[in-house]
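Re: your question from the hallway

Yes, I did run it. Sequences:
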Amino acid sequence: MKRHVASKTLLYPMPAVLIAAGYEGEIGLCAVAWIGMVSGTPATIAMGLRNVRHTLPLIEASGEFTVNVPRAGMEASLDFCGIEAGGGAGKWAAAGLTPAPAASVSAPLVAECPMALECRVTAMHDVGDYRVVFGEVVEIQADEDVLTADGNVDVELLDPITYVPGTREYRALGRKLADAYSVGKPLKERAK
Amino acid sequence: MKRHVASKTLLYPMPAVLIAAGYEGEIGLCAVAWIGMVSGTPATIAMGLRNVRHTLPLIEASGEFTVNVPRAGMEASLDFCGIEAGGGAGKWAAAGLTPAPAASVSAPLVAECPMALECRVTAMHDVGDYRVVFGEVVEIQADEDVLTADGNVDVELLDPITYVPGTREYRALGRKLADAYSVGKPLKERAK
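Structure:
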């Protein structure tokens, strides 16, 4: 028996990442959970930013931003970037985070995050008080210590943070349940 | 020291959900990881569907779909819905899943999933071979056994599935790291 749930913005799980952008010497930083990959041709993410966010005009002016994936242990810095309005170099310092140059865009990376997506804005779409920014992923870089010998990201070494809406908590990723593109094969064989 | 990563479609973590839609008696079902909340006014999700997906024309024709959150243990059914092309009632049966009526849309729910978002299409945006569908969340329902006494979703009872790109695996959510909107407050106090 299903029951009505009061909130309408619940999706499990959500990422918890730091968005950075810069324009003419000003640098912005904010925490975002409303973000997802939406295309592979080219690789494109979409994220919703409330239109009062300080980082949004920097993204609009520069046409670039970075998506920085924090690791477990960085919850205080991440959370601060979500609850502290405004931006600027002072916000980075107060969060204990350091801007670093990206490889392919002018937007800064968060040096402390083990992985970052570098994005160029390709479209924007307004939904109410939110601006949905589409960003083509032009480069991904990760710290050597989260990469396997063959250059793939090892999610256990990455140890990313998940945002849980509703009860509003951060959680780590948990145990492996199954291999994707594999565990469903017996059902596919049976369906033939 | 950061290194280039070959893939450009990595974001951690990603959801792993089942999208259902129906039109004139035909019902479709597919697995999606490229989805995220993008607005709160009104509550709106965006998801990227490759334009060959069988479920997409059903979403376009009916203007409605449901986002069904499977729980740990349902990996085989979920994975099957990702690797099996096409759709129809036979796909539901082969996946071991049952269509059930939704509360506010004509699209079916997946009865076995403990939680579902009911959505109405508000916009579409093409990015390469993918169509990004914007859906306003008009209703969320959840099984009583995943709800707390005060009607909130308990994520440990829900036990949702995460998709890990790159190494392509399903994982459960893990341990609680911290309370959001709280763990960053000491940094905010210090920043004043």
